Amino acid sequence: MSAASGPPAPEHLDVLVIGAGISGIGAGRYLRTELPAKSFAILEARQASGGTWDLFRYPGIRSDSDLHTFGYEFKPWRDEQSIADAPRILSYLRETVRENGLDAHIRYHHKVLGASWSSAEARWTVDVERTDTGERVRLTTGWIFCAGGYYRYDEGFTPSIPGRDRFTGPVVHPQHWPEDLDYAGKRVVVIGSGATAVTLVPAMAGAAAHVTMLQRTPSYVLPVPREDVIANALKKYLGQRRGYALTRRKNIAQQRVVWRLCQKYPKAARRLIRWVNARQLPAGYAVDTHFNPPYDPWDQRLCAVPDGDLFRAIRSGSASVVTDRIASFTETGVLLESGRELPADVVVTATGLNVQAFGGARLTVDGREVRLPDTVAYKGMMLSGVPNFAYAIGYTNSSWTLKIGLLCEHLCRLLAHMDAHGYDVCRPEPADPRMPTRPFLDFGAGYIQRAVDSLPRQGDRMPWLTSTDYRDDVRLLRADDVTDPELRFSRASRTGGLTTRPAVRADL
């Protein structure tokens, strides 16, 4: 190459999907089937697909949503287990990759560092690091679809606990589970009360001498059947696809009813959950101490325990629950503020996640950095003032993937609309810049509250509200038109600038 020719131009793609987990794989499938002429790649920072289901390796890891709604609408869940373990989910995801020819589109060891939008060129320039070699590469793309969820893959949340260095045993976080951790016959203390803790305790109880779940505040815990008898019968008699479709509709309705009842009648829901818990626990158990949270049901996510395995471990004596605050570690365990010491050979800090929006990538638009708290979410999938950028955030009050499928469908329809009308750019802009806003995720979980000030906001009206209801989102994202008066379309002019056009209504 001669000096005059300069460096080669970066590779250009129509769409760049960030993340090869459940959301990114779904996005790739929709792009292949709905927009087959579009070029796209899926960038994955890790060495394997599957996201959460490949990353987490702690004992007992499983879904806390049924796979008939957590799975894709386009691909039936054929396993008899409705609440499934990670290996089964990972197999399902990788089968989806193979069946839809996505292997050639996934680029592993590609971590997105930042992306800069140029209005003059109507495209993103994306800086990528090869995590296996350290090499930096640059791509350009018309659209970015961020499908990496909202938590950090490289670091879990562990609060500072005095005296940690004094403890002589291992202290592990579930997000970084050591393959060689030996807890057989040992005393284990699991710090936490969320979905990870209630999964770990019964899974470890079979091999450990004893497992204690140490919680500061109780969570709502509900036993659910590991196998859905109705679902398996429907699939047997109606076939996989029809049975799956009917089960999916049944479970969506069921989730919605439970959510609505908890919101409308929180005191009755609390009493019902307490009654269910009391029936699962030994006679005389201190239910109100260990299983009666100070908040209403669904202010935080309910923890599902398949076939009541947590309660079964408590009944057998192989596990117990302690509700107290930690004063410090000791050489041989954990000292509580009550003065009691819990002996431990192994401590597991199931204390949650660190939220990180869009993988921590730095975004700029025409040289100005995008400050996420200054943006407002549009239809729960785009950001005000940020062109040609979409993201996938699922539900917190039901199965994550229910919303992801609707978002992917809507994005494909939006791109088809732009192609049909010759648009290069679309940018959400609130008609009223003074529109009142509130947190993006109205959710009481600690990991959300710790990061709420670093996340986008949502407005007080549609399309700036982030819906948490599947039925509402079906109307908004599937049945309604992709255009909106507050979504501005434009096309690049011959001089390199952009010509703004009013939204054209077109039902596609």
TrEMBL record:
SUPFAM superfamilies for this protein: FAD/NAD(P)-binding domain
Organism superkingdom: Bacteria
Taxonomic path: Bacteria, Bacillati, Actinomycetota, Actinomycetes, Kitasatosporales
Official protein name in the record: NAD(P)/FAD-dependent oxidoreductase
Similarity remark: Belongs to the FAD-binding monooxygenase family.
Matches recorded under Pfam families: FMO-like, NAD_binding_8
Entries under InterPro entries matching the protein: FAD-binding_MO, FAD/NAD-bd_sf, Flavin_mOase-like
Cofactor: FAD
Species the sequence originates in: Streptomyces similanensis
Protein keywords: FAD, Flavoprotein, Monooxygenase, Oxidoreductase
Keyword Membrane: no
